[in-house]
Amino acid sequence: MSTPRKLSSSRNATGKTGRIATVVVVASLLLGGAWYWTQREASAEEGAYRTTQVERGDIRVAISATGTLSAISTVIVGSQISGQVTDVLVDFNDQVKKDQVLARIDPSSYEAQIAQGSAQIASARASLAQAQATLRNAQLDYDRKADLGTRQLVARSDVDLARAALDQARGAANAAQAQIAQQSAATQTTRINLDRTVIRSPVDGVVLTRTIEPGQTVAASLQAPELFTIAEDLGKMKIELAVDESDIGQVKAGQVVSFTVDAFPDRQFRGKVEQVRLSATTTNNVVTYPVVVTVDNSDGTLLPGLTVNAEIQVSERNDVLKVSNAALRYKPAGEDDVAQAQATPQRGAGSGVIDDLTRTASGLGLDATQQAAFDAAAETLRERQAARRAAPQASGNAIVFGGGRGGGPRVSDNAGGGDMQAQIRQRMAQRYQQDFAAFRAMLDDAKRARWDAAIGGLVGAKRAPVYKLVDGKPQQTMLRIGASDGTDTEISGDIRAGDLIVTGERAAQ
Length: 509
Known about the structure:
Strand order of the largest sheet: 2-11-15-13-12-16
Mean pLDDT: 80
Number of domains: 4
Distance between the termini: 66 Å
Number of strands: 22
Radius of gyration: 47 Å
Helix content: 40-55%
Low-confidence stretches: 1-11, 336-350, 393-416
Strand content: 25-35%
Shape: elongated
Largest sheet: 6 strands, antiparallel, barrel
């Protein structure tokens, strides 16, 4: 009887364990399904759009160009005379001083010409002495006959003949004198050419090229043959960059240039824009302008002729709001669900212009009085913008000033047109000048010009729509667009650091 009781207890325990396991499995499946459904709903809500975050940072705008290194001053040494080269006294890379002898040309023919000219001068001088003797005799003969003629002891014709003989003798003496001058000049020319048989360096520098060898004959009939190329100073060099016409308007003298050369790929060098030349070059319908960049090469690392890959830093914006360029290219597939720019600005809108003006003022080096005047004007502008935002928004097609962050105009869709936009910008510029008139009056001419340029740039800034992600929906906002480095773009307006900007839409799951 004891054995059946043991079997019944064992069977009851096994059944209870199985029911517990079944409950655990079912509960796990329900919890897993609930978690999966919750995650799917959250993912669907948050992942409907691809977004990027507005960040605060620096933007460096640069223009890429290529060019070639060369010495700032390169002198080509040639020969003004023809002849055979007898000596070459310098070689490639030799350091030379001004007036140092570089080469010699055979002087034999010029020495012979000088000897011949000297003999001709001596002959001319002998002819002059003979003519002068004839002149003295003719003078005496004329004096005698003139005296006798006054006493009517000789015929008048004899006196006239004596006068003619005197004039002829005087002319012969003058001709002999001119012959001496002519021969002296010819000989002096030959002496100059003789001196030119010695080729000297016109500057201090280094020999870059040498195109002659001893025994070679140079001919200078039509143009001077090039014998040497001398770089005056390799401690300072230049780069001639070819900048595309679409970028040349941003290049100014004094801008910083960073560049690399293939010979030293791990090093980066710096230079400065010295000149923007006006002589455009057209190659395959591409117009480029030469930009000259000066480079300090005091260590002698850089060599003439190296190919340069350069970047001209045209502007640098520090501590600004920026967003990926993809956000500026996004346009929603359906505009019906998108809130338009006429939506009420968020709290804090209007600070964009003030931030830009504050950044400009900080770079002017203001004194305490000027800074106080700026702060007062900025605070007045901030209070007026806050009051405007608190007031009811205008409706219809009216133009609303100060609706966007920074106090810029917001124009409804039916108020467009180039003339209208120009009027708006003009009114904005006048308003800003009035607000900061007292501050502007304290600035000197240079600072006032920089301030006016900043106001003009602010008013004439480009604007573009972006779409902020607000409560899971894209909301259109018009922002001012500033500098771009090709990846990120400076923005200002109704935007803050950390805002999510839509860059695209995800495919439905």
